[in-house]
Amino acid sequence: MRYVRTALFYAMLVLSTIVLGLCAIGIVVTTRRSDWAHLCGRLWGNLNLWAAGVPVEVHGLERLTPDRPVVYAANHQSWFDIFTILGKLPVQFRWLAKEELFRIPLFGHAMRMIGYIPIDRADRKKAFASLEEASRRVREGASIVIFPEGTRSRDGVIQPFKKGGIILAIKSGQPIVPVSLSGSYSILPKGAWLVRPGRIRMTIGHPIETQGFSIEDRDKVIFLVREAIRQYLTTREGGVLEAETSTREVRSAAS
């Protein structure tokens, strides 16, 4: 059954990417409405969740503020995080995504047309330019989704955060909304191809205001955001913070 489900998922992934990618491009070209084109992305996410047989529990929708631009910061365990956020986060937003995705034929072009922002992690200068562009977009009223870990976790445990995404949020002056994604790693771990049955829980946390913080406060903001995300993960997924590790080592040495 898993092989049948996996085959259905990949067939849907290819078909939906082609059809909805063309649809998104066509909408932007003919109407100049990237917000309408984003709805194609939402449908794309939901179709692929359905094809994989992955139900999603969503909590915290009452904490969303669609009329205010924010930076959504989510942990990253699997491809299915992308499907989940696109399909189940019922607001307009744009992705800050690694540049490699924009090189995928059709898919990448559709992402550019909708207004998603590529970031080249291998080129420091280009990466900072992308962060500045994303910060400007937020100040002008667009919400952005980032994965502060930078890439998928190899073991499902939340990784240390990169500073770039948090700096863009501080520069924008807008709130960071933590998004906790639990259960997606077991469905499709990094490096695997066989889809496993499972359920994803997405929890939207309380907004964290960035006004009053400066770039020098980035480590403090990272701690606040990472802890807010960990709050709704399992004990295993949440791992431990460096501060907790140090405390445990001190207690161990003292005993």
TrEMBL record:
Pathway where it operates: Lipid metabolism; Phospholipid metabolism; CDP-diacylglycerol biosynthesis; CDP-diacylglycerol from sn-glycerol 3-phosphate: step 2/3
Reaction equation(s) it catalyzes: a 1-acyl-sn-glycero-3-phosphate + an acyl-CoA = a 1,2-diacyl-sn-glycero-3-phosphate + CoA
Gene Ontology CC: one annotated term: membrane
TM stretches of this protein: 7-29
An annotated Gene Ontology molecular function: 1-acylglycerol-3-phosphate O-acyltransferase activity
Domain Phospholipid/glycerol acyltransferase: 70-184
GO process annotations (BP): CDP-diacylglycerol biosynthetic process; phosphatidic acid biosynthetic process
Pfam families, sorted: Acyltransferase (PF01553)
Keywords from the named record: Acyltransferase, Lipid biosynthesis, Lipid metabolism, Membrane, Phospholipid biosynthesis, Phospholipid metabolism, Transferase, Transmembrane, Transmembrane helix
EC numbers: 2.3.1.51
InterPro entries (UniProt xref): AGP_acyltrans, Plipid/glycerol_acylTrfase
Domain notes: The HXXXXD motif is essential for acyltransferase activity and may constitute the binding site for the phosphate moiety of the glycerol-3-phosphate.
Family: Belongs to the 1-acyl-sn-glycerol-3-phosphate acyltransferase family.
Protein name: 1-acyl-sn-glycerol-3-phosphate acyltransferase
Organism annotation: Desulfacinum hydrothermale DSM 13146
